[in-house]
Amino acid sequence: SALARGLGSRGYGSVQFLDLGGNSSLGDDGLRALVPALSAGLIRLAINDCSIGDAGMIALAAVLPSKNNLRTLDVGYSPGVTPKGWAALGGAVGRMPHLEELYRLRFTIH
Questions:
Q1: Per-residue pLDDT tens for 30-76?
Q2: Smallest Cα–Cα separation from 78: which of 40, 4, 23, 41?
Q3: Using an 8 Å Cβ cutoff, are 86 and 60 in contact?
Q4: What is the pTM of this model?
Q5: Which residues contact 84 (CB under 8 A, 6 or more apart)?
Q6: CA-based R_g, the chain, Å
Q7: Rounded to an integer, what distance in angstroms lies between the CA atom of residue 52 and that of residue 32?
Q8: CA 79 to CA 99: how far, in whole Å?
C-alpha cells in the first residue's frame, strides 16, 4: 500500500506513534502490507476499528516481538478476529516484556 511505501521511505524510519484507528479500509491486506514497514522505534500502534481479521492479526503478531520499544497496542473493535487470531496475538504479547498497555475493547469472539 502507499502508506507502507511511505513509512518505509527515507526519513520515516523513526515513526514512534501510528494511529490508524477507524480506518475501515485498512483490513487484512493493508495491515499485511504495512507490517514490514513498521518502525523499530514504534512506541504506540493503534489499529482499532480497521476491519482486521485473522490474517492481519497473525501477520502483526509475527513481527510484534521484534518491536522492542512498543509500549501501547490498540486492537480494539476487531470483530473479524476469531480465537485463532487472538491466540496469535496472545503468543506475541507474551514475548513483549516492554508492552505496558493493550487495548482490545469491544471485540467479539466467534
A1: 999 999 989 889 999 999 999 999 999 999 999 999 999 999 999 99
A2: 23
A3: no
A4: 0.86
A5: 54, 58
A6: 13
A7: 10
A8: 23
